[in-house]
Design goal:
Elements (H helix, E strand, L loop, with lengths): L1 H5 L26 H26 L3 H11 L20 H14 L5 H37 L1
Helix pairs in contact: 2-3, 4-5
Length: about 150
């Protein structure tokens, strides 16, 4: 009996692509009731809360000042840095560029995190240079092969 029932069971995906298993379910974009209620409360009280925070900030509350300023003037995620890098034309030039980055980190000109970010950029540039060099080598090999034929 068990073998007969197993052949009737659907294997794999029971629904066509794009077809819902519950067509009468919640429509897309429906929001949770709790979030809708919180948004309504926030809309009603937002002005009063903001005014209270501004008053506390004016009174010298550093936390209120920090909260307001972080919304109005968000912290920068990075800063421009300036130090000398040798020109990079081919993959051998990257050795000098990486040495310059290591020197700038060890000299305190840039932070280790900044050095790591620059190193990642140099790695992307290395891959791009390598790709161009490989394409040129392949094209030269293909051209030689064509000339031999």
């Amino acid at each position: 009996m068990a073998a007969e029932n197993s052949t009737l069971k659907q294997r794999g995906r029971p629904f066509q692509k794009g077809q819902s298993g519950n067509p009468q379910g919640k429509p897309k974009g429906t929001r949770n009731r709790v979030l809708v209620a919180l948004d309504r409360i926030g809309e009603d009280a937002a002005e009063a809360v903001l005014q209270a925070a501004v008053e506390r900030a004016k009174g010298g509350d550093p936390r209120a000042v920090e909260t307001i300023l972080s919304r109005v003037w968000p912290a920068r995620r990075g800063r421009p840095i300036a130090f000398d890098l040798p020109p990079i034309v081919n993959s051998t030039d990257l050795v000098g560029a990486l040495a310059a980055v290591a020197g700038a980190v060890s000299g305190g000109i840039i932070s280790p995190e900044e050095g790591q970010s620059i190193g990642a950029l140099l790695e992307v540039q290395r891959r791009a240079i390598e790709t161009v060099e490989l394409e040129a080598r392949i094209a030269a090999l293909e051209q030689r092969e064509e000339q031999r034929r």
